[in-house]
Structure formats: structure tokens, C-alpha cells
Amino acid sequence: MDIKDLKVLVCDDSILSRKKLKDCIISLGCANVLEAADGEEAIAQYDSNRPNIVFMDIVMPKKDGIEALKGILEIDPKATIIMASSVGTQSYLKDAIKAGASDFLQKPIDNKQVKKFIDSFCSKGGV
Amino acid sequence: MFTQFFGNFLLNEKLVTPEQLVDALQQKKETRMKLGVLAINAGYMTASQVERVHELQSKMDKRIGDIAVELGYMTEDQVMELLHAQPLGYLLLGQTMVDKGYLDNAQFENAINAYKEKYSLTDEDIANNEDSKVESLITSLVDFSKTSHPALYEQFVSLLMNNLVRFVGDDFTPLEPEYEIKSTSFKSTMQGIKGEFEKETRIFADEAELIQFACRYSGEDITELDEYAEASGQDFINLHNGLFTVNVSNEEQIELQLTPPTPLAELTPNEVSNCLILPFQFPFGTIRFSISL
Q1: For A3-124, which CATH superfamily applies?
Q2: Looking at beta carbons, which residues of chain B come within 8 Å of A91?
Q3: What band does A125 get if pLDDT is binned at 50, 70 and 90?
Q4: Segment B51-97, tens digit of pLDDT
Q5: Residue A89 with chain B: CB contacts under 8 Å
Q6: A–B interface: beta-carbon pairs under 8 A
Q7: What CA–CA distances, in Å, run from B27 to B1, B21, B164?
Q8: In terms of DSSP H, where are the helices of B203-289?
Q9: Is the pLDDT of residue A126 over 80?
Q10: Contacts (Cβ under 8 Å, ≥6 apart) of A15
């Protein structure tokens, strides 16, 4: 898949975190980046736009990232969702992986890691 | 961390005023290390020997190092060693104080020796940022013994300082902890820690300081208290608390959770009445963090 055709959803309650991640993804050549500011919005965005990759924060208002992860996987069990959070504790990691997250990024986010995920998705169709 | 604590030491010993400290923090970037201060720090020359060398240099066209060698104060090897060593941060602060005339050579000599003696520091500890020594600096700043979980509070404070260095800048001085505030002009963001160590944590400051903090943290050009400024405080505290919960999970096997940071709002003094408050002096002003006791 060409990176130009990739659709990515960035879900984080912080406008600054969203901007940083969005800037990084756009700099890689992906023009189609959607945003959601809480877990409920993430599920709604996923449902109507079907992005190829979702980057999902965990600590968020309304629905947290783990609940949103479950909600999206109910809609589409094949969704590729990468958790991107500051709380990479044993139990949050376990919850995320158990619920079906594809991978986990510890904040502060390393742009090289983001590139690795996106490159690998574009070449293999998965992270 | 030794740089940050050297500023705190100078303040506490009343060797410099808060205004001089802020000024030196602002000027530090432009400072270039000079041989005299390096030699005093290494114990190769005394302050009076440095004065003598400077006096002679003003009368003859020779380099400081050559004069010191001629007078038998230092060997050539020592001069080379000092000139090639990586400058230590706290020395830059000291050099700035000397350049500005806030400390003379003798006062700097006394201060640096007293600082090292008080915390049993060697230059090697300082260059390696020796963990155990940093710990003793932090426990001398904050009395954790009266808290419910001394080890966790200590970890919280130590990580906070490291995160400030990592994400905001190393040009700060930790000021003495406070247990109450009087100002009603602060704006704050709160994030709750849930679980076995249930606490309220906050970042707060006056508007102008929060904007400056946001510029530093975000790397964006922020000029007013807009949503990016608000998000910067929220992001920093969320990042710090997140890394704290990760450390506690890995090292103490304690699983903690976080609540989303609250919107920025005016802080009333009673919201932090039973808290450990840590003020950090940056060149642009003071930023405070609190954690409930």
C-alpha cells in the first residue's frame, strides 16, 4: 500500500499530543490524518471513516483508550490499533494486548518508531 | 542534577540573592569557562593564586595557564587537563556568578568547597551524575520521612526533576519546598493518581510563566494562554505521572492508574493545603508542582 493512500486516526485528549503525532505522520508522506479527542469520538470516527491505522492514547475522558480499543474491535475485528500512551505499566500493557492492541508506544513518542510502524504496515499490511 | 542543586545551595547559604540567581540562569548559556574557576574547582589553585595570576596577566602578554605554570602553581599537564575536560554544568553557573561579580574568586572557592563537602561530592560523582549522590541531595531538600510512602514520594520528586531537565530545560533551581500558598492568581491543572498511592498532583503558576513553560515544553511559539498552553501543562504532568507509574509498576510491582488532567483553572489555596509543593525557579519565572500528602 502506498503511504499516500493511507488513512490514520490519531486519538488523544491533548491537542498538543495530537498535533505532534499528526505532524510526524504527515512528514512521512501520509496526507490523510483524522483526529479524535476522546474514546467515544474515536469509535465514531473509526466507524464512519475506517482508517487503516489507529494511534490510541489510554488516559482519556468519556471512554478511555482501552474501552475505545474494545469498541473499535467490535466494529472491525481486523482493525490495527497501536496504543500510544505515557502509562505503559504492566497492567495497562496487559489490558491493551489482551483486548487486541497491535502494539504499544511509550510516550514520549519516538518518531522513528512511528515511521517503523507505518512503513511496516505499508509493505506488509500489518504492524 | 548537581547544577540545579548548586543554585539551591548558593541561595540557601545566602551567597547570592534570588535576583542574582535568575540573572545568572539567564546568562549561563553565553558563559565560557575560564581557567581560574576550573583550577579552583579542581583544587589546583587557590583563589588568591588565581587573583595573583590575573594581576600579572594584566601587566604582561601571556596566557593564564603559562603564568600559572611559571609561578609553579600548576603543572603543564594540569593546565592541559583542565582545558580539555568537559565543562560541568554547575561550574558554568559558578563562572557566570564570578563573571557578573556576584561572587569573587574567594567566595566561589569557599562555596564550591562547602557544597562538595556538605554532600560528600567528588568531581567524578558530578561528571557521572552519580545516582546515590543525587538521591542524598533530594532527601536533603525534602523531608520524606514524615510522608506515608517515603520511597514513592522520593521517586516522584527525583523523576520530576529529571523530566524537567529532559523536557523543559536544565536551567532551573529547585527552591525550598512549601506546604501552603497565599497567592490566588495561580492557574493549575490537576491529575489524579489512583490505586495504592492515591494522590492529587498539580502543575501551577501565574499565566505569564505558564505561557513560557508551554513554549519550552511544546517547542511551539505560544504567546497567550490558549489551548496549546493549557495542553502543555496537561501533557507534561501526564507524561511525568505516566513515567512515574511505569517505574513504580516495574520496580515496586505496584499498579497505579491515572485520571485525565483537568482543564486549567484558578487555584484556590485550600486545594493545595495538605500538599508537598515544589517550586522550581526558571529564568522566566517560577513553576510549581504539588502532590497531596
Answers
A1: Response regulator (3.40.50.2300)
A2: 249, 255
A3: low
A4: 999 999 988 889 999 999 999 999 999 999 999 887 777 889 999 99
A5: 245-246, 248-249, 255-256
A6: 58
A7: 19, 10, 19
A8: 207-218, 227-252
A9: no
A10: A37, B227, B228, B231
DSSP B119: T
Q: What is the pLDDT of residue B18?
A: 92
Residues B78, B84: Cα–Cα separation, whole Å: 10
Answer positive or negative: Cα dihedral of A66, A68, A74, A80: negative
Q: Look at the alpha carbons of B65, B67, B69, B73 in this order and tell me if their dihedral is positive or negative.
A: negative
Mean predicted lDDT score pLDDT of chain B = 93
- For residues B234-269, one letter each, b for 16 or more C-beta atoms within 10 angstroms of the residue's C-beta and e for the rest, the string is bbbbbbbbbbbbbbbbeeeebbbbbbbbeebeebee
B-contacting residues of A 23-62, CB under 8 Å?
59-61
- For chain A, the structural domain boundaries read 3-124
Give the C-alpha separation, B95 to B251, whole Å: 39
Q: Which residues of A touch B231 (CB under 8 A)?
A: 14-17
Is ipTM > 0.90 here?
yes
- Provide the CA A95 distance to its chain's centre, in angstroms: 16
Contact state of A90 with B260 under an 8 Å Cβ cutoff: no
Which of B194, B228, B239 to substitute to test the interface with A, most A CBs within 10 Å?
B239
The CATH-assigned architecture of domain B142-292 is 3-Layer(aba) Sandwich (3.40)
Helices B18-27, B2-12: axis angle to 10 degrees equals 150
Any B CB within 8 A of A95 CB? no
* A16·B250 Cβ contact <8 A: no
Tell me if B250 and A108 make a contact (CB, 8 A cut-off). Answer: no
Which of B218, B231, B239 has the CB atom closest to A86's CB atom? B239
Residue of A13, A86, A89 with shortest CB distance to B249: A89
Residue with cell 505521572: B241
Evaluate if residue B231 carries a pLDDT over 90: yes
Q: Is the per-residue pLDDT at B105 higher than 90?
A: yes
Which of the four pLDDT bands, split at 50, 70 and 90, describes residue B286? very high
What CA–CA distance (Å, rounded) separates B129 from B123? 10
Stretch(es) of chain B classified as CATH 3.40.1550.10: 142-292
- The per-residue pLDDT for range A11-53, each reduced to its tens digit, is 999 999 999 999 999 999 999 999 999 999 999 999 999 999 9
